[in-house]
Known about the structure:
- Helix 4 (76-90) links the parallel strand 4 and strand 5.
- The protein has helices spanning 10-21, 33-42, 55-60, 76-90, 126-139, 172-178, 219-225, 243-255, 268-277, 291-296, 312-324, 337-340, 354-366, 444-450, and strands spanning 2-6, 25-30, 46-49, 68-71, 94-98, 122-124, 143-149, 154-160, 184-191, 194-196, 209-215, 235-239, 260-265, 282-285, 304-307, 330-333, 350-352, 371-377, 382-388, 409-416, 419-421, 434-440.
- Helices cover 30% and strands 26% of the residues.
- The strands form 4 sheets. Strands 3-2-1-4-5-6 form a 6-stranded parallel beta sheet, sandwiched between helices.
- Helix 1 (10-21) crosses helix 13 (354-366), helix 5 (126-139) crosses helix 8 and helix 5 packs across helix 13.
- By secondary structure, it is of the alpha/beta class.
Amino acid sequence: MRIIICGAGRVGFGIAEKLAQEQNDVSVIDTSATLINAIRDTLDVRGYVGHGAHPEVLAQAGAEEADMIIAVTLSDEVNMVACQVAHSLFNVPTKIARIRAQNYLAPHYLDLFSREHMPIDVIISPEVEVGKMVLRRIALPGATDAVRFANDAIVLVAIECLEDCPVVNTPLEQLSELFPDLTATVVGVVRDGQLMVPHSTDQLSTGDLAYVICDKDHVRRTLGLFGHEEPEAIRIVIAGGGNVGYFVAKAIEERQPNIKVKIIEHDRSRAIAIADQLRRAVVLNGSSLDQSILTEADIHDADLIVSLTNDDQVNILTSVMAKRLGCKASLALINEPSFQEFTKPMGIDAYINPRAVTISRILQHVRRGRIRAVYSVEKGQAEVIEAEAMDTSPLVGKPLRDLDLPDGVRIGAIYRDKQVVQPIGSTKIKSKDRVVMFARSRDVRHVEQMFRVSLEFF
Length: 458
């Protein structure tokens, strides 16, 4: 696939790295010569210094033969115009744009992005995506990651196996025997920094991070089975009243009126603005690194501190200070990959990587075949994929035990007729089934082939 990426920042670099590894023909455009030189020196891609919305620059990058343009510069307007130019002058089939300003995304303005006006096929709002991720983490205390698939009927949770975890040293196949009515499958394990796809005879060990795919109605029980029965956070302090912080606070007010929220925002005008828009949340003007402000927010009685400022270091230090002052748990937004490795030693319970969230949304539309959703885990080492099986798929009609699946692929759940099916050896995948699976990066191409529509279908 020939792909043009406008923007060589963190997200653009991450997308280019992932797509180049998969042997795609990738061109990257950015106005910064420094960023383009860095991406040329590091990745097997072509780099062009220039404005991503200028026709001559797009032409140099190969827009006439491109299958897709992904516009992720820091400017919404540049991203929109780049997609418009790619459509109007070069007829690029698929156009993806990152749009951060919420004014563009208001429901009564959505017709703006129709084919007749500004033809953007996929709009990605990082603030909304990250905000939704934060809400999922808050709703599932004890999970270090959580993503929904198949109309929210299936959930992927990442669970740390602590010393008192009841299921350690037990073969995975015995878990199904011990809990036959539990729809949950361990599909991936991270042990000592190494990712593996387990077999039924493998066992979990203390310190493992287990990726489990389960029925949404069985998530709480699954967490309890792994020894995580943390209560729901009722008193939450949010550090940072920007777009993400406001989105989270607003959603909690609308959906969970029993939760008490306090927001710390350092910018006075922003603090006043969000205080006017929120009904119940208490907004404090000050720095989350100021111990007196944390004390005023009653951090010693808080169940959770959620650090969502634009500064990784502020988020990390705020989380550490809050825990030292008595807050029960912490969740931090961290962009820099090198910082993410220090969260556990510093006592931060969980973190969210906004770049990974955005890249996952984009990969969903890059993948070939009937791929409905993609979520990248462990810094791109693996993906959780939801795909729809077609009549011509080699998976259809055969017992799972007879399928020639790569060692790096494990099926976690099947969504059929609005019901979640637990996959066992005798299970047969049917046409129109939605299959949620865990796949090592090296095996993603194989998954795509399994779910492509072959010519004989027509």
